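debug: dumping io for the single-chain case to check the tokenizer round-trip. Nothing else runs in this session.
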Amino acid sequence: MRASFRLFNRENIFAAAFIVILITLLWLIFTILEPFWHDFMWALILALTCYPLFTRLKSLFRGRGGLAALFLTLLIFIALVLPGSFILMNLGQEAKDAYRALSKISFSEKGLLLAERIRGSGLQPFLERWGIEPEQTEGLLLNGIASGLRDVPKMIGERVSAIFKNLALFGLHVLFVMVALFFFFRDGSRYAHFLVGLLPLERPYQERVVGAFSKTVTAVVRGMFVTAFVQGVLAGAGFSMAGAPVPILLGLLTSITSFIPFLGAASVWLPASVYLILQEEFLRGIGLGLYGFLIISTVDNLIKPLIIGESIKVPVFILFFTILGGLKVYGVIGIFLGPIILSLGMAFLTIYREIYLSVPTGKTEHDLPPVENAT
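debug: decoded output
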């Protein structure tokens, strides 16, 4: 006699109740910790980046992990806070002075002066060949450039005001990041072993997932540093060619501000461009502005996908849109979360292919079919 299948037996009811309780508790934990997820993610990124240094310090302190974690956390805090405080203090004073100076300028007169410079530079005959008369040039400058510059003081005031209004909240989140970073250093290996052990995968596949995660974080950090260096070099060259004062210092400042989400490279080249225009170096100022917009700020979107894609072996064009989508969905932390989610997704697809489709492992983790050359 065939044994009858009972859906609502004791074991199934207990298993279903356990799963419901577990999911409810996990959801409650997620809800409680939701305000701090961004802080935890930044702490995790810093911990993964600096963990090799922590292991060296731990051996230097004779295995005292707590002391090594405290020392490295304080070192990172000082390295981040001192430059950031210096930049913010100078930014506040410079922005205040710039707002006062720009508010007193007659931008209409600057627009007329620029129109006269264009007439005397030999550009007007070239413009007339394209059907642009002197009156149209003057109107374009008055209604376009002049009105745009007129909005600069307001824009500077609003941005700086927003930064300083949120400064206390930002400082509180930095404190949360440092606290989490200390515990990630001290107990991170224990946390990692516990979480990895929960994955329903065999040991080699668990190691592959962990490797994809850590490799992606390292690649993103490397991409940020390389991008900052390239932006600094390009900015220094642009400032030098445009005749801006202290071009090397401005290039270095561009590299530093490229790491700061609410500033970026534009916080350096845009004021420098406005400064040149106010010094009646109109063509140089406008040229520097175009160079900054098209070259300095754009290179960020090109270098990062190339470096990260080469490290984690995913198509660059997919990674490019993943970074942009991560920024839109998650904010600044999306620069990391986008590539991490993509890399983990590709790792799990590869594992699925090997386990369930019985496809042997290729030379790379996320290998794609080769592209046939069209002849």
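debug: round-trip ok. The mean pLDDT is 77.
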